[in-house]
Design brief:
Strands 1-2 form a two-stranded antiparallel ribbon. The chain is mainly alpha-helical. It has a domain of 206 residues. It is built from 11 helices and 2 strands. Helix 2 runs antiparallel to helix 3 and helix 6 packs across helix 8. The protein starts with 6 loop residues before the first helix and ends in a 12-residue tail after the last helix.
């Protein structure tokens, strides 16, 4: 497999694929952070998480077109506006879904799986009816175009660097929300003992709704980032939902560090193996490895110790 390449070429290949893996890692992290909040903290299996991501991508697409048509002088900053709008639109839809559907299904994880799977099909059909079945793409601002040459053989795209910086920023923001804010303390209190949390005055229903909304909002930001590296279609979210659940479970539910470590290892393994093997074989080998590790450590890489 490596015999046809010189050492210099192999070094360049591993560097390029490693950077491509970092871009994939960024998308995984942004998707998995929202899912870790919903699944890890609330125990809700949200099969519509990919559709929330695609909603954020469509919001970015609409914002791009509006700025191009009506505010061309501000087009260079449209993505930052789109990202904020994507967060609030998807968070609002998430809170509506929690109020109308999810709150009736707590402590029934299989029912949440079936209900959110049906929701994902409904959202896919809505996207197909509104935006059409074909994939759409956004126009990237000029300052995101091009690449930075590191060596004669290695170049890194600027939009990929931006997505990675965005993923790091969102990860830091989620960390401070979950572990350094009063809201995060309330979420963790409700997770560990809902009855006692309610007894000390925490509004558990409001905490659940905000938690679900923020998890969906983070998925919307992931959708905005996704438009920088790929096109958007009604079913594009389903391509990432399995990998996202894999990242969360492999890293350990409710563990932010585990989610990041899991996303990094899975994305790097897939990216490097895809160059030397087929994409499907890379996924098969990655999945087999993760399943083997989970058989030895079913709680994931970083499991939180809770008092039962």
């Amino acid at each position: 497999m490596f015999a046809d390449y010189t050492m210099g070429e192999l070094g360049a290949i591993f560097a390029m694929q490693g950077f491509a893996g970092l871009i994939l890692f960024s998308v995984f992290v942004l998707m998995a952070l929202g899912l870790a909040i919903i699944f890890g903290q609330m125990g809700v299996i949200n099969m519509a998480h990919g559709e929330f991501m695609i909603l954020g991508a469509y919001v970015t697409y609409i914002t791009s077109n509006l700025f191009a048509d009506y505010l061309p002088s501000l087009f260079s900053i449209y993505f930052f506006i789109a990202m904020i709008l994507a967060f609030f639109v998807t968070a609002a839809l998430g809170m509506l879904v929690e109020w109308s559907l999810i709150r009736h299904l707590y402590k029934r994880p299989l029912d949440t799986l079936l209900a959110t799977w049906g929701l994902s099909l409904i959202l896919q059909q809505i996207y197909r009816s509104v935006f059409g079945a074909r994939e759409v793409g956004v126009t990237i601002p000029d300052w995101m175009m091009g690449s930075l040459p590191l060596t004669d053989l290695i170049e890194v795209p600027i939009n990929g660097i931006f997505v990675m910086v965005l993923a790091i920023s969102i990860s830091v923001a989620v960390y401070f929300m979950m572990y350094r804010s009063s809201w995060g303390k309330q979420v963790r209190a409700v997770t560990q003992n809902r009855v006692m949390a309610g007894a000390v005055g925490i509004n558990t229903e409001r905490t659940d709704r905000l938690t679900f909304g923020i998890g969906c909002g983070v998925a919307g930001v992931a959708g905005s980032a996704f438009t920088m590296i790929g096109s958007t279609g009604p079913t594009a979210g389903q391509l990432y939902i399995v990998d996202t659940f894999l990242v969360v479970v492999f890293g350990g539910a409710a563990s932010l560090l585990g989610t990041i470590a899991s996303a990094f290892s899975i994305s790097q393994a897939q990216s490097i193996m895809e160059f030397f093997l087929s994409g499907s074989m890379a996924k098969v080998l990655t999945l087999l490895t993760v399943v083997g590790i989970l058989m030895l450590r079913p709680q994931g890489l970083f499991a939180l110790k809770l008092r039962k």
